[in-house]
Amino acid sequence: MRFLVYSISLLPWLAHSKTAGDLCRGTAHKADDGNWYCSEVQKITYHNISQSGMYNRTTGVDAKTGLCAHEPIRYNGRGSLTPLLGEVSMHLRGPMSVSKIAVYDHPGDMFGPQHVDATAQTDGGIIKEPSIEHNEVNRALNLGGDIPTTATQSMNGNIIKRLKYGFQTLTRRVPKPDQGSTLVDSTHFQQPMTSSAHPEPIPPKPSSSIFTRKPVYPHPPRIAQPKATDPPASPDHASRTTEKVSKRAAGWDRVAYYTSTAPAEATGIVFLANLGDDRVSGTFDYAFGNSLGYVGPEGKKVVSNPMPFDGYLKTSEYEIAGFTDKGCGDNECEGRPKSTQYHGWDGEAKAFFIEFQMDHLDNDGDDQGMIADAPAWWFLNAAIPRTLQYGNDRHNIPCSCWSTGCGEFDAFEVLGKGEERAKSTIHRQGNLQGGDSNYFKRPVGRMLKFGVVFWKFDITAAVLDDDFDFSESMGQDAIDRIVAYDAESNQHSLFKIGD
């Protein structure tokens, strides 16, 4: 979800997946809002997100000049620097009622909070991307030619007003693995590098208004598959200690749990929002706007301490973020100074489950530029919201790593006002990715249990049985049933990212 994405949303028949293609062949339909839809499904699996690549990590900002600095990070497709395999934050946008949330990890996960990608490296020169409009007001922007793009919108009503006046965000210096950090002027970027292409640098262009674009989908979506030319991952990443192997049989541990049943309780999860205020929590300044801060039960006001929200996000004007309850120590996390910062959920193996309801409700305000009646549940590289979820620096260059492909997964997102269908999309690898045009049914007037499982370099988003239990531990067999793929099923769409 985040700001406008460079993600190319493609009809699955052009991917390698027979089932995804079958589900779209003859059913593809372009809605009035410009988005494409195919068949209703119960599961969507994005297969093999393990590719090598590069993105810009934020290393600092200058609040006086309004400029952000970055360094290029290369990764080999394994390890916590690889998009979505490292720390992720969880995000929710109304209108939505949430009953439960549970997060699980696998004791035998090859990665952990202290894992460092052995092949990750930095070098001179920063990736430079064409200027991006950092909003999610629209889910599409035509980049020219036959290639449509998709984007998502979710802005808190408070910060969206500040963005209108050009407020953006701040980040702090993060040392390189082998040396102290160096501030680099953000005008010295290069174009994003992907695993399949190395284009020539493109100078940045000013963004037009982020509140006036309309969806543009002149053709059915298509996807560009990454070439199988990535360097092999280090064999060290596949190693397991004897202890981890023995723990594998124990299944998955619940590391975070939230229930809205009065009184609402949250264990292992902290709720934040882009509402930072120096007098309460987080920070605000006129160069970069609101940082993350603790958010109150209604998801509308900044508070001074962690509080479980009451389970109700009234409209699409409000969104909140969930992080682990592990705070960031000095120089531990990439992010904005004085912001309220927590670690995200790390590792290649992790699972998220939610029970929610998404009834129709229009926005309270009269800002016609904001998306309305379009709830969503999605995940970001945790460095993105800690740095700047929405907005650019003074040179209109994105402050966070998002635009260069550090990772986002939209699990269940309604794209158009009042739409009854929710889609999924993956953004990483320079954001030249896409989303399956098969969709999930929006739960209106009823609760729905839904899950996202990161396992064996696949991401599976799935509708769960009504009796699914958010228990303290979960056996591997339960996870296996969720991710199991039946090539003959017309309810499970397989969308291949890699071979």
From TrEMBL:
Residues 1-20 form the signal peptide. Residues 190-246 are annotated as: Disordered. Residues 42-105 form the Cell wall protein YJL171C/Tos1 N-terminal domain. It catalyses: Hydrolysis of (1->3)-beta-D-glucosidic linkages in (1->3)-beta-D-glucans. Residues 237-246 have a biased composition (Basic and acidic residues). Residues 251-480 form the Cell wall protein YJL171C/Tos1 C-terminal domain. InterPro entries: YJL171C/Tos1_C, YJL171C/Tos1_N. Its EC number is 3.2.1.39. One of its GO terms (molecular function) is glucan endo-1,3-beta-D-glucosidase activity. It comes from the Eukaryota. One of its GO terms (biological process) is cell wall organization. Keywords: Cell wall biogenesis/degradation, Glycosidase, Hydrolase, Signal. The keyword Hydrolase applies. GO terms for cellular component: fungal-type cell wall. It holds the Pfam family YJL171C_Tos1_C. Belongs to the PGA52 family. PANTHER family: PROTEIN TOS1. This is glucan endo-1,3-beta-D-glucosidase.
